[in-house]
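Lab notes, practical 5.
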Amino acid sequence: MPEIKEEARKNAKSKTVIIDAPLLFETRLDKICDITIGVIANKETCINRICKRDRISEEAAKARINSQNKESFFKINCDYCINNEIGENLEKQINEIFERKEFVK
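Output from the prediction step:
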């Protein structure tokens, strides 16, 4: 956690500092964020991606997914959510968020 705070401090003069923090809410780092963006996908998509990326069994991937916060948690607790499903236009979703008044100065 100190490393993340230091990275944010070093980049504070930038208009936007992006932190990829899987445990953002568990470590309470969300409290230092002006805006939070959750990246979500359905359970099957997540399981398939974990199996491929980490080369683990489907059972191990399911256990990992089941121990994490659910999609609804991020929809409730994040300011915005990006749907990372195959076929979704990620660039369009990201641009729509960054075109909002919170980001335009």
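Observations recorded by the TA: The mean pLDDT is 86. The two ends are 29 Å apart (CA to CA).
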